[in-house]
Amino acid sequence: MRLITHLRHVDLAVPDYDKQRDFYAGVWGLTEVASDSGISFLAAEGSPEQYVVRLRKAAEKRLDLISFGAASESDVDALAERLRAADVRLISEPGKLDTPGGGYGFRFFDLDGRTVEVSADVAVRKHRKLEAKESVPVRLSHVVLNAPDIDATRTWYETHLGFALSDTLAHPRMGQVMHFMRCNPQHHSMAIARGPHTSLHHISFELRGLDEYMYGTGRLLRAGVRMIWGPGRHLAGDNTFSYFLDPHGNTVEYTTELEELDEDTWHPHVHDFSQPEVTDQWGTANPMNELIAKESFNDVDRGVFVAPPV
Questions:
Q1: Is pLDDT at 246 greater than 90 in this prediction?
Q2: Mean pLDDT of 81-96
Q3: The VOC domain covers which part of the protein (predicted)?
Q4: Torsion angles phi and psi, residue 193, rounded to 5
Q5: 10 Å Cβ neighbour count for 120?
Q6: Would you state the torsion angle of the CA atoms of residues 192, 189, 121, 26, taken in this order, to the nearest 10 degrees?
Q7: Which of 88, 103, 187, 193 is positioned for an S-S bond with 119, CB 3.0–4.6 A?
Q8: Sorting pLDDT into bands at 50, 70 and 90, what band is 145?
């Protein structure tokens, strides 16, 4: 039984906090809704989530945590019990949260040592419908994680958190390189990419539509933000993509029109990404090559099996 409903937020720690905060609250188009000494909570204008990114000032860059939603406190408790019975290492027991919007949740380590939070009953943020040509993120779309053994990580998320496989990318020489995983009808809320070490691959943000996605892509290019891949349209998920680097070298994506699946009838495909139309149906993006792939390997994550301090 699936107890996870959706992706809530992705939390990052960085040494140059001011530069990172200026990027996300500035050209990237998020809205700072709360801040404390060395911590910033950033919301997407069209999202009911209290925040979609949390930034924390730290000596070393790391992924602090990934947060998912659950439908109720009883579902949070049931999931904690399920994980405990399976000897998954809990960081905290279910209880009241003191982040913006409150709620009830707990944290644990996944197979690769990432901190995961699951919460329910978080207050809904007052949000709004974005206007035509307004090129800021509507919501958080998905997160992609690098893992040395993508099959083991996929199985862990299927077994313990009820995620389902939507599609897989493979290559004739390299074998399987990415699993797209869903926790609701959206094609993927998370994907697992094959990388040399545990790290963040990219965070993706949904824009209002094609026009807004292109306006946003252009705004970033004019601002001198480095685009590593795009603009284009993937086959798996059928969503658009423009990948940029944030000031600390994390890959962040503007996307739109991510496919919604009929979960009862969907069967996963294996797509051969050596075929150019698999990576980009439009043929407008720069070719995917080893240099681009290495950008998204990111640095070795210093937060593996180390819970964030807040």
A1: yes
A2: 98
A3: 6-121, 139-257
A4: -105, 145
A5: 21
A6: 100
A7: 103
A8: very high
Q: Is the peptide bond before 231 cis (omega within 30 degrees of 0)?
A: yes
The CATH classification number of 139-295 equals 3.10.180.10
Mean pLDDT confidence for 237-250:
98
Q: How confident is the model at residue 27 (pLDDT cuts 50, 70, 90)?
A: very high
- State mean pLDDT over 174-178: 95
Among all chains, which residue has been given the structure tokens 């307004």?
134
Six-digit token pair at 206? Answer: 């949904």
276 contacts: CB under 8 Å, gap ≥ 6: 283, 287
SS3 label, residue 36: strand
- Determine the residue type at 288: M
DSSP letter at 278?
H
How far is residue 184's CA from residue 153's CA, in Å, rounded to a whole number? 19
Query: What is the model's pTM?
Result: 0.97
In the chain, where the domains are located: 4-120, 139-295
Strand ranges across the sheet with 199-206: 227-233, 240-245, 251-255, 199-206, 139-147, 190-194, 175-182, 164-171, 269-272
| pLDDT value of residue 116 | 98
Ordered alpha helix ranges (H), the chain: 17-25, 73-85, 150-161, 210-222, 276-279, 290-295
- Over range 45-71, report the average pLDDT: 98
User: For 4-120, which CATH class?
Assistant: alpha beta
- Please enumerate in sequence order all residues whose Cβ is within 8 A of that of 228, keeping only pairs 6 or more positions apart, or say none: 243, 244, 245, 251, 292, 295, 296
Domains 4-120 and 139-295 agree in fold: yes
